[in-house]
Design a protein that fits this description.
With 141 residues, the protein is of the alpha/beta class. It contains 5 helices and 6 strands. A hairpin with a 4-residue loop joins strand 1 and strand 2. The longest helix has 12 residues. It is globular and about 40 Å long. The two termini are 24 Å apart.
Length: 141
């Protein structure tokens, strides 16, 4: 688990031990309910309790949970796209595998981006999909 602050927002992230630099990894963005998205600690707790950490680990994925300190209504629907652009090549593999040019970074391939939203996070995720149609391989609200 890693606390990351991109230029766009603070995020909670987790990189599966199965993710490496050789194979594209799913990137799963989870927009937790407002009360679980307002701090890093709350997002981490939600990731554990909801099973997303286990799912990301099993699936060899990268889990990304934006922190929405002011709630999801205050967030711009471009946030997820901007976070992907800002951080997609910054997640390092835990086993150090690397191909030339990737410097140990996990390959968060754009066709494998998923978006999940709960409660207020679902409303935000819905707005994201309207603002960025066809950006995600799958969306669950």
């Amino acid at each position: 688990m890693k606390k990351t602050i991109s230029e766009k927002a603070e995020i909670f992230s987790y990189v599966s031990t199965k993710a490496n630099s050789y194979t594209p990894a799913k990137t799963i963005y989870v927009c937790a309910p407002d009360k679980e998205a307002r701090s890093y600690e709350a997002a981490e707790h939600f990731a554990q309790d909801s099973g997303w950490l286990d799912l990301a680990e099993e699936d060899g994925a990268v889990l990304v949970m934006p922190i929405a300190k002011s709630g999801w209504q205050a967030q711009d629907p471009s946030l997820i796209a901007e976070l992907y652009d800002d951080t997609s090549s910054s997640f390092k593999s835990k086993n150090g595998d690397s191909i030339p040019g990737r410097d140990g970074s996990v390959w968060c391939w754009e066709p494998l981006i998923y978006l999940v939203g709960y409660e207020e996070g679902a409303a935000f995720a819905g707005n994201v999909t309207i603002a960025h149609p066809n950006r995600f391989a799958g969306v669950a609200l």
